[in-house]
């Protein structure tokens, strides 16, 4: 189980609680309580996608695995992306982040999921991972531009370039 010990010596466990604590300290949380609830909604929705992905990934029966991946890529992901794109468009016509000009933990969680999905697609389909994810996202032009915009944030771009390489 993930945990951190704060500078004050307090222990905090669970990845969601840690995410919110660190982001609040680092200025990556929405300042409005309703916006924060919507950010949590986005993160919870991303986690729902992650659960569906993990279910397909670890399915032992090959026929069932194919069925789950097909449903994931052809139904689950497009349906969810349509909802995310509508939410993004509701702020500044989708020209910024989920909460306008302010980058938040919801933006990071969303983009991180699709970064991790790249690896999973590569493992499952044996295809060039970047093309698959970008093809899915390109069907949602606002989200695709948003995805690229988040990845272009200098600190995120630098981390991606310098982070330790992993198969996961």
UniProtKB/TrEMBL annotation:
<dbReference type="Pfam" id="PF14497">
    <property type="entry name" value="GST_C_3"/>
</dbReference>
<feature type="domain" description="GST N-terminal">
    <location>
        <begin position="1"/>
        <end position="30"/>
    </location>
</feature>
<protein>
    <recommendedName>
        <fullName>Glutathione S-transferase</fullName>
    </recommendedName>
</protein>
<dbReference type="InterPro" id="IPR040079">
    <property type="entry name" value="Glutathione_S-Trfase"/>
</dbReference>
<dbReference type="InterPro" id="IPR004046">
    <property type="entry name" value="GST_C"/>
</dbReference>
<dbReference type="InterPro" id="IPR036282">
    <property type="entry name" value="Glutathione-S-Trfase_C_sf"/>
</dbReference>
<feature type="domain" description="GST C-terminal">
    <location>
        <begin position="32"/>
        <end position="168"/>
    </location>
</feature>
<dbReference type="InterPro" id="IPR004045">
    <property type="entry name" value="Glutathione_S-Trfase_N"/>
</dbReference>
<dbReference type="InterPro" id="IPR050213">
    <property type="entry name" value="GST_superfamily"/>
</dbReference>
<dbReference type="InterPro" id="IPR010987">
    <property type="entry name" value="Glutathione-S-Trfase_C-like"/>
</dbReference>
């Amino acid at each position: 189980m993930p945990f951190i010990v704060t500078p004050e010596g307090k222990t905090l466990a669970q990845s969601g609680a840690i995410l919110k604590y660190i982001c609040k300290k680092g200025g990556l949380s929405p300042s409005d309580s309703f916006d924060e609830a919507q950010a949590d909604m986005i993160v919870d929705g991303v986690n729902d996608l992650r659960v569906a992905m993990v279910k397909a990934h670890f399915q032992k029966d090959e026929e069932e695995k194919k069925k789950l991946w097909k449903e994931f890529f052809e139904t689950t992901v497009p349906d969810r992306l349509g909802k995310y794109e509508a939410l993004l468009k509701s702020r500044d016509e989708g020209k910024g982040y989920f909460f306008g000009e302010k980058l938040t933990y919801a933006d990071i969680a969303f983009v991180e999921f699709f970064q991790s999905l790249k690896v999973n697609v590569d493992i499952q389909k044996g295809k060039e991972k970047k093309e698959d994810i970008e093809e899915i996202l390109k069907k949602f032009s606002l989200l695709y531009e948003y995805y690229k915009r988040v990845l272009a944030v200098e600190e995120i771009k630098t981390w991606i370039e310098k982070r330790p390489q992993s198969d996961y």
